[in-house]
Specification:
The protein is of the alpha+beta class. The chain has a single domain, classed as SH3 type barrels (Roll). It is 23% helix and 36% strand. The chain is built from 2 helices and 6 strands, in the order αββββββα. Strands 1, 2, 3, 4, 5 and 6 form a 6-stranded antiparallel β-sheet that branches. Strand 1 and strand 2 form a beta hairpin. The longest helix has 23 residues. The protein is globular.
Length: 121
Amino acid sequence: MSEVTDLSIRQFKLMNGDEIIGLIESDNDTNFLVDRPFKIVVNSIKTDSFHLVPWFDLSLSNTFTIDKSMVVAHAAVADSIKETYITFAITLDSKINALGSDTTDDDNIPDLIPDIDDTIH
């Protein structure tokens, strides 16, 4: 599993309090380019567990620039966390692709722009 070890997956603590995890595509003097960042949400009841949610869940892009001035701290994560991250990202991509390929039933797709002519009672 050396491929997982070689991946640059890091955890970030941001100035706004968000904690995110993502695959680093590039790193320069001023910013990080992060692929598939997910917000880390700690379980409020069982504090030794967490779940991941898309950081920009309505965006069409998977890659985001994070300005280093907004980063409080960042660190590499354990291989087991990398595996969890990869599994979650692949599963989410599969679900999104399956949703996008099913064009036979448009009634299951949420309408974010309501039709003005619809009557609401």
